[in-house]
Amino acid sequence: MSPLSSNAPHGQSTLRTVQVLGGGNAGSSAHVRSLAEGLVARGVRVTVCAPVEADRAYDFTGAGAEHVHVPRSSDPASVAALRAACTHADLVHAHGLHASFRAVLALSGRRTPLVVTWHDRAQAQGARAQFLRLLERRVVRTAAVVLGASSDLVDRARSTGARDARLAAVGLPGYRRPVPLDDPDRLRPKVRAELGATGRPLLIAVGSLDRHRGYDVLLDAARAWRDLDPAPLVVIAGEGPQRPVIQRRIEDEGLPVRLIGRREDVPELLAAADLALLTSSWESRSVLAQEAMYARVPLVATRVGGIPDLVGDAAELVPYGDPEALADTVVRLLADSARREALRESGVRQTAGWPTEDETVAQVLSVYDELTQPRPLA
Q1: β-strands 202-206, 257-261 pairing
Q2: Would the pTM of this model clear 0.85, i.e. be above it?
Q3: What does the UniProt keyword field contain (predicted)?
Q4: Which sign, positive or negative, has the C-alpha torsion 61, 63, 64, 68?
């Protein structure tokens, strides 16, 4: 009988797993919270090693897991804390490149199986990109199994030297999905008024204000919308290092764009929007794309990474770095209510084929089972 069973036979202990997080990625943190809850419900002991801020935000202990504070750093003290937490683990599962590298260091000299999930790709250029590539190689050649959130991540792991790389089933946690609002007809005008979008189209983008999000391209496209009557309002929810640069351009060029900072009411923002915009240079399973399609909001996204596989024909895709294509697509969609409705209906069909949280947990459990089951003697 498998040690994954909550009803393990006499003398066989419950499977003990450690989930390792860097704490910097909202998607991977939400995934680990959902995974921990599903594993605990199936009788698996789960310890989550992550910065204390991540536990405050995602409540791993509320999911039934034990939380151990491990700073988002690869210094000796952090590695030692992680090594101690992994002492009695049957298996360690790390999420993201930096967390995975810390796990490799912490497990050095031990035979504890390591599973790695890549939720996204590290964004860097020049010497730092070469350094990150070295980390990737070290991680994938150590891991027993690498799970990639998109097919291109799986291909990347294989080309880097992974012994076993597979496509991960990563379902969007239920608490991240927009739910039907009690009174959308009343709330929608209220949200639009608060944002300054009364009597004009509202376009929503959500994500950290980092270079790879492509907001420079979005601002270029917004120039074409200044002369429309009424001009659409672009609202960007998020924070990050590019905020001063973006804000300066908005003011200097008189662009119809507002920065509203990090928000906890993204479902309400999406419910009020006419279109959702995703302009990144690369994404795997974009949380915004999933939230928008669950909310039945037409999506315009860049044709990069895992986006085409994720959205199928349920979104308008444009090339990355092409502001004219983005601007033209948005103008065309705003003028075509039938096409917007068709995208909503396609989105319902597309989301029905996405993995559920239960399917995500089941896949992970099957991997754990492979790696922890005793092998029969030849």
Answers
A1: unpaired
A2: yes
A3: Glycosyltransferase, Transferase
A4: negative
